[in-house]
Amino acid sequence: MTQMVQTTQMAHATRATAETAGVIPTAVPRVESAPAGCAEVAGLMGGGRAAEELGLSRSEFARAVQLGLVRAGPQGPAGAPRYTRTELDRVRSAEGFPDALRERVETVAGAEAAAAVLGVGPSRFTRLARCGHLTPVGYRINRYRAVVWLYLTAELRDFAVREPGMLRGSAPPADRELMAARADLRPRKWRERHVGLLLRGTAVPWERAAVLASVLPEDDVRAIVPDAAERILLGALAPPPPYGHPQVPAAAEVATRLLRAGSPDETGWYRTSLDFALTGARGQSKSTGERGPT
To answer: What is the pTM of this model?
Structure first.
């Protein structure tokens, strides 16, 4: 029990170390308004104030943080990211601001809206997305508990320019095989993007391992991480659900399934990646003479 307590304490120490270094995951921003009179403290401000200063809506700002276009600073006492004025000045100084930034974070929801951007019918767009040619950047769960995928408008336009042949004519053989198998690669492609953004947001070995563990079913994590204390540590460092994850239990249940690897080959890839990440994390801990992250 003492060992578990020490490990959990080390998880908090890891957060503090990452905050001090300015290294935290950026894919899951909490866009909140600070209390009146406390919007900016010691050169740091909350997400709501930062979004206002950049002239972005809450959702636009959250997407900019997710994509790494706006870098979060140290976390505040409640765990919400703060943002430095220096970072906001950097973003404002970019060419074409603010229109260029808005264009990069603009999204469309659902097949009909996305198909209109490509200039194709919804059925063709759905086939392109299900076969993995287009990667969602987020999701919503509608009132019927169906997944509505979000796509970056800029990426859709780039695809139309880059792959005009995919927008007309017959489906290629590989796509026909996937369609016959009723495959849907959208969840897997989204998970790849989501995990990639989270990993890009941290260089802390134990946090990187926690990101990979968060995608695996519990039984797989137990198999890869037999040490209960290490599992507690990975759970403490696990990233929160992505921006837009629903709070209503019925919808959250549907969305939570999107966070877990599906097919055996996908699960196997994350298992291998987690095993590799743990080797590095344990090696760093061993080199410092401490158990757990440093």
So the answer is: 0.81
Determine the topology of domain 24-103 in CATH.
Multidrug-efflux Transporter Regulator; Chain: A; Domain 2 (1.10.1660)
Q: Among candidates 210, 213, 211, 209, which has minimal Cα distance to 196? A: 211
Q: What is the pLDDT of residues 124-134, one digit of tens each?
A: 999 999 999 99
For 10-55, the pLDDT digits (tens) are: 444 444 433 333 333 333 344 443 443 344 556 799 999 999 999 9
